[in-house]
Amino acid sequence: MSKHFARKYLREEVLPSTFCPGCFNGIVINAFLKAVEELNANLRKVVFVSGIGCSSWIPSPHIKADSIHTLHGRAIAVATGVKIVRPDLNVVVISGDGDLASIGGNHLIHAARRNMDLLVIMVNNLVYGMTRGQASPTTPIGLRTTTTPYGNFELPMDVCRILEQTNANYVARWCISNFFKLKDSIKEAFFMRGFRFIEVYAPCVTYVVRYEGKTAGEKIKELFSTCIPRELVDKAPQGKKVIEVGVFKKEDKPGYIEMYSDYRRSIA
Ligand SMILES: Cc1ncc(C[n+]2csc(CCOP(=O)(O)OP(=O)(O)O)c2C)c(N)n1
Ligand SMILES: [Mg+2]
């Protein structure tokens, strides 16, 4: 990130960031802001909403824009309220796998069912990073975490596959190694109507990558070969651990805000 670019979008008073050295959250901030820059989008028309967790610190305090830091798990509930009273604003939720899929899982599914006009970015670092690396609903089988020291035995959930089955208009997953795809996907979803969900696969550098005995750079190199585009997954060698990336769903159905105002007109 150039100095000029950083000064334009980031709050200087919080730099250097409180993220751990090498944390992939910085790549998410960069991809998001590059998308904003390329779209020439006005951040004064954006409200960020986040929950509690390291990834929830991406918008607030880093990005120069209005943001609400909500209770743990309640980002989508608060974002829904903001969108309903200010439908003219673009409401963007950036939170973690714990915040959105664990304690906030119910809100996530129902906002997708309603096709609520929100852009939701879930940073999936595979653990509860902020509280020191406990297993989350997306922790893969076998991963050693602070609460699964002998390896996780619980089946994880694939949030994209679940949301694909809802009324959401847009569902996509990218790895942190797919920087340009991630940036383009944020651009694609930014001004769409309805519920747009982007998962960013970004293993926690401190509690996943370091536990595996790797550096952040080594992990990114590994992700180049484990993150496979959806259309090529069937061709991957049998038994190879792969992360399916790509767009799971793209539709242009009216979102909740439009449906609600049509409904109000119809009963007036
Ligand atoms: C009601 C409530 N329960 C538990 C916590 C403790 N807590 C804070 S952050 C967090 C998990 C965050 O995990 P995730 O959303 O994946 O964010 P990450 O730090 O991994 O980016 C938990 C359990 C809390 N703050 N509030
Ligand atoms: Mg997490």
UniProtKB/TrEMBL annotation:
SUPFAM superfamilies cross-referenced by the UniProt entry: Thiamin diphosphate-binding fold (THDP-binding)
Domain Thiamine pyrophosphate enzyme TPP-binding: 60-200
Domain of life: Archaea
Keyword tags: Oxidoreductase
Gene3D superfamilies assigned: 3.40.50.970
Enzyme type, top EC level: oxidoreductase
GO molecular function: 2-oxobutyrate synthase activity; pyruvate synthase activity; thiamine pyrophosphate binding
Annotated catalysed reactions: a 2-oxocarboxylate + 2 oxidized [2Fe-2S]-[ferredoxin] + CoA = an acyl-CoA + 2 reduced [2Fe-2S]-[ferredoxin] + CO2 + H(+)
InterPro entries for this protein: 2-oxoacid:Fd_oxidoreductase, THDP-binding, TPP_enzyme_TPP-bd
Signal peptide boundaries: none
EC number: 1.2.7.11
Subunit structure: Heterodimer composed of an alpha and a beta subunit.
Designated name of the protein: 2-oxoacid oxidoreductase (ferredoxin)
Organism name: Candidatus Methanodesulfokora washburnensis
Biological classification of the source: Archaea, Thermoproteota, Candidatus Korarchaeia, Candidatus Korarchaeia incertae sedis, Candidatus Methanodesulfokora
